[in-house]
Amino acid sequence: MRKICVVITARASYSRIKTVLTAIHAHPKLALQIIVTGSALVDRYGNIIPYLEAENLPVSAVIPNLLDVESDTASAKTTGLAVIELATFFANHRPDVVVTVADRFETIATAIAAVNMNIPLAHIQGGEITGNIDDRIRNSISQLADLHFVATENARARLMYWGLSPQKVHYTGCPSIDLVFQHKDYDFNPYEIYGGVGSQPDLNDPYLIVLQHPVTTEKGHSKWQINNTLHAIAALNMPGIWFWPNADPGTAGTAQGIRAFRDQHPDFPFHFFKNMESGHFIQLLKNCACIVGNSSVGIRECSALGIPAVNIGSRQLGRERGPNVVNCIPDTEAILSAIKRQLAHGRYPQVTLYGKGDAGEHIAGHLATIPFILKKHLLPA
Amino acid sequence: MRKICVVITARASYSRIKTVLTAIHAHPKLALQIIVTGSALVDRYGNIIPYLEAENLPVSAVIPNLLDVESDTASAKTTGLAVIELATFFANHRPDVVVTVADRFETIATAIAAVNMNIPLAHIQGGEITGNIDDRIRNSISQLADLHFVATENARARLMYWGLSPQKVHYTGCPSIDLVFQHKDYDFNPYEIYGGVGSQPDLNDPYLIVLQHPVTTEKGHSKWQINNTLHAIAALNMPGIWFWPNADPGTAGTAQGIRAFRDQHPDFPFHFFKNMESGHFIQLLKNCACIVGNSSVGIRECSALGIPAVNIGSRQLGRERGPNVVNCIPDTEAILSAIKRQLAHGRYPQVTLYGKGDAGEHIAGHLATIPFILKKHLLPA
Amino acid sequence: MRKICVVITARASYSRIKTVLTAIHAHPKLALQIIVTGSALVDRYGNIIPYLEAENLPVSAVIPNLLDVESDTASAKTTGLAVIELATFFANHRPDVVVTVADRFETIATAIAAVNMNIPLAHIQGGEITGNIDDRIRNSISQLADLHFVATENARARLMYWGLSPQKVHYTGCPSIDLVFQHKDYDFNPYEIYGGVGSQPDLNDPYLIVLQHPVTTEKGHSKWQINNTLHAIAALNMPGIWFWPNADPGTAGTAQGIRAFRDQHPDFPFHFFKNMESGHFIQLLKNCACIVGNSSVGIRECSALGIPAVNIGSRQLGRERGPNVVNCIPDTEAILSAIKRQLAHGRYPQVTLYGKGDAGEHIAGHLATIPFILKKHLLPA
Amino acid sequence: MRKICVVITARASYSRIKTVLTAIHAHPKLALQIIVTGSALVDRYGNIIPYLEAENLPVSAVIPNLLDVESDTASAKTTGLAVIELATFFANHRPDVVVTVADRFETIATAIAAVNMNIPLAHIQGGEITGNIDDRIRNSISQLADLHFVATENARARLMYWGLSPQKVHYTGCPSIDLVFQHKDYDFNPYEIYGGVGSQPDLNDPYLIVLQHPVTTEKGHSKWQINNTLHAIAALNMPGIWFWPNADPGTAGTAQGIRAFRDQHPDFPFHFFKNMESGHFIQLLKNCACIVGNSSVGIRECSALGIPAVNIGSRQLGRERGPNVVNCIPDTEAILSAIKRQLAHGRYPQVTLYGKGDAGEHIAGHLATIPFILKKHLLPA
């Protein structure tokens, strides 16, 4: 049995690889080791432990390391701590492959620990471009990885272009899209299950979903940016669901903006959730009139669903997208106008840009069968 | 005044950027901050503090973090500690640019700390290929850096090819070659100045220099590899100078091999040094009949000097080289035969593959004048 | 000049040693190095940097290390990080004495770093008893320290009793009491200066001050405990000033309790502050009708002021106290009844149990003159 | 089943608690978790993993954290790293009690991690006095611990005197003495089993054992001190067994002193071992004419064996001792004279000062039955 260690550092990353975890766990030749760390252990950013338990996925270790996010050294120090403690886990549990996901700042810790210990490293979602600082982390990890499972054909081409060996770069589609194809229709009461605060719109009527994170390199603007979105949405006066931001630098500004706005607008017709199981989230997504903000969900998942998306600002600037996305700058008027345009348009055709729903199975299959000759991987193609 | 922070993690890195440090320190518009960390603080791997003091170069901080090298988590943990403490230094001293050098495992810590704190990162010696694990670290840092000072035209072309903006990649030549052009003739007594152990060959007669480090991904073979080199040299029965290996994984095997061999061969005609000021080292290099081992010195500095080099094994496999290098596998017969071939050939013509001797000045000039608009750097070219 | 390094880890610790800092800074034979770390760098727990700047006290380094407090490893990891980075500061700045204050969990990091580096350690406020887990940290630091500046005669006797040398234990009184003797009358507008939220009571009328922290070993009860206090105060319907809790384990429960209560009681006649300069705080204290909660302020500062104090629960159980304190269990009825009793009593006579107002000067004087023969300190008295 | 987690940081600590480990492991109501960390994982200081495996004792985790000992921040940073990673282990494995042993600098990390996580802490060998810096660490841990298993009646009295509750302090004797009572006669060939270097004395003839560690607070003198011992022994010209020093600060000087002496005295009639299984060590001890150096073995184990001991310098100055010990200063003449005196005297009567051989059983029994009411432990007796 090959031991496959997957390190999950954030709520968003968990959703992105849930089907990979399930497929590895079910595979007769693979033993799954899950490490949960970073903001994925902190309630207010979305503790994923209950979701893993609900799916009967085994947690091999929790490694708390998130520094208080007010500090501008917090992301560096969280990353440094992660390198140190992941090395200890690897020394004790000797995985055959370590899997890291996407491009958050702290994911590079997984890569560094694995490379320093000569353990083959697999990277999911490499080769993409978003146009912000995440590109640097993602590309940096691609350079460290031994094995790449990419979400799009373009991403594969880009890694080939850098000189990586074709045997090492596999187009599997994005595992987050798998969930979209497994979705059920909306059939649950989110207010009962997830609590949260604010109005409780009837989700059988048209509603928006808003998901806006701080932009790491614009963290000083996060409060102003969220304010513009809040005022645009308020002007629209349409109900909706709002998700709190992740733990990136600038998150205090985003959260303060939301809190102050809520204090001043007690009748704002939105409900605010901290976190939601990804299947439930997909149900709400599938059912919504339009998604607004700067999450990759609007571009990735919604391309497969045909849901109109308003993508605000620079966070997803370079990301490959289908026809369902309208971009706008973080300005109240621009946001309002873009949402109106999308509501007028309605649903888009579904496209398979990010995969066909079998990425998890493909990745597990590759992990079970690819020969790992570490020395060969280290030589240029 | 722009504050330029240079992080030095190893003896070898210091030699590589000595002329950059001097040029920054002398520049009227630049304030130099030097951080010394990792093996560069440890006597048996070559503590560089005395050399910095001798050059009147200011040390802003020492950050001891080298774990005992026996552990296979040592390099990961040293890297993690470096990320943590460099972040604190950056938070307290707010450099305008952080400079990292080359490709040792722990240099990526500098890159991660700088990127996480939104401080522009300059990388020296990116874009090269050696054909071993160092490539991964080097390329990974290139992906994180905002500014690149490369040693060869090929290296620049490679980074362009990855899509980096031409304004960000500067061909300056390699600062380590600057020293070669500043060299004096052999005029000092190394035994008096540096101590060391073993025979004391007369350096007016022909002699070899040996510099063989463990190969990170072949650390289990380091003792066997050094033994083969030792026996080849012994068979040749020519005097020489041997330098102890650096602190990479496998160094215990290399050191044990040397110690055991010395115990069994008390008359071995070599002298063993731990460390040497780089100007003195260049003098000995310039004067030697042939350099043997797997240091980049044989390929880089010796290309500019025309010194015959025998390059053993995989450590420098892909590195761009001039006519002075003969490769061989780590086998006693192969090494012996390669050395004999080089001794028979003698000096080669000097080539400027790695620069013309003005890299330090060029780099300091760029650092003083390049506009740093961080947000722009973060966007793809 | 002796270099005296004072490490401050929390807002409360700063207030406790402010007069020591001022006296060291003013002393002609002492050079002051201040390190700010832990929650003392985080806005929502009371960032002390602005206060230090306002006093022209020099900050030698900031060391951010507070982990997100939700984790039950947070206090351990913050302590571990502090040991690591304080060691680096000590290695770079070589203080002659390191000073640590009181008994918060992370203060032991200062002690460990100093002892491991053979730097004499001075401890302020050792030898006291509070009856909770803080005793263990405080006593543990006393065992590590070379020099003790204690707040009460009883504390000195207790350290003597353990076998410490009389030359090493100095009764100076508590520096936090110095501030009480420097107090001015209430003459500022706290709402303008410090913002905060809630009602704005007229502070010329009688008012309460509430300061209730989570109890580390009862962290699961922190929400229930604060709720009982909130309901007791609400039943009283008297205006007041409430200070947010510090960053100890359980703080999330305390903060949630307060937030939820405020949501349900929009007319609650209290104003909520996060932090306040200690001189201003003393003004408000001096002027208040009664202090309620579990802060040591009610016992220490208020003994010197004669302000009635209601001390709730176990946090200060064993602390030496004057006549002004009434204890009660964390029960709504008990708290309400105790406050009523204190309001009926009014002011108490002032006592000098914790010093006469010159502790800062005394401590600075000792630090300037005590002979430091490290070897001798290490031998038993 | 109660989970008992024992943290072992050094070869010496392992020997001291071997019988405790065995007794816990054999106990039907206890589940043993062993963590190996610090120098106990490093070959040249005595990697204990092989010994644990040989005894079928389960290793729950290895946590490599020893910094390169040349740095004067090494012991602090090793301690800081230990706190961080032990907290993670405790969070993942939730021991019911954590056990720490004796007084080495890094043992306090175990105490801090346990206390910060509200896990009851048991300390073995508290309450003793050695008269050096170890006292501070030991006493500091005693202040943090919930439960104390002490080696002598005096030690128990001392902890009582500090105010600890009688229910928390148990006189069990020292587990290291248990081994002495289990000893067999000398029946193995140490040269075959343990390798080592140097002469191979016939151990049926009279021989010395030397065990001299650097003194932490005198680390600058470690080379000079070992030299004096070496010259005293050389003057005696009696064969013997020498054990390399532990990893404390100053160890480089001690090791260099030994290496240089061996180079100059190729016929020195001693054999040098790095490490030895404790049962074998006891055999050699039982059989030797005199033990020389500054290890506690000469005072503790040898009191039960009646072996003459020469105790050099300040390292064990205050330790409670039986009649078998002669003290001397670290001077060649003084050492030589003391050894001669002891050789002339021969064996001493055996005393039970440090226990009767059943400490391991006693401690395991207490751990299985003592009620752990954490809150009560936190209150003063």
Describe the structure.
Four copies of one chain form a homotetramer. By secondary structure, the first copy, chain A, is an alpha/beta fold. Chain A folds into two domains: 2-178 and 357-378, 3-Layer(aba) Sandwich (Rossmann fold); 190-345, Glycogen Phosphorylase B (Rossmann fold), CATH 3.40.50.2000. Chain A is built from 15 helices and 14 strands. In chain A, the strands form two sheets. A seven-stranded parallel beta sheet of chain A has the order 3-2-1-4-5-6-7, sandwiched between helices. In chain A, strands 8-11-10-9-12-13-14 form a seven-stranded mixed beta sheet, with helices on one face. In chain A, helix 3 (74-93) crosses helix 4. Chains in contact: A-B, A-C, A-D, B-C, B-D, C-D. At the A-B interface, helix 3, helix 4, helix 5 and helix 15 of A face helix 3, helix 4, helix 5 and helix 15 of B.
In short:
The structure is a homotetramer of 381-residue chains. Chain A has 381 residues and is of the alpha/beta class. Chain A has helices at 11-26, 49-54, 74-93, 107-116, 133-144, 153-161, 175-181, 190-194, 222-236, 251-264, 278-287, 301-305, 332-345, 359-369, 374-378, and strands at residues 2-8, 30-37, 59-63, 97-101, 121-124, 147-150, 169-171, 197-198, 208-211, 240-243, 270-273, 290-293, 309-312, 325-328.
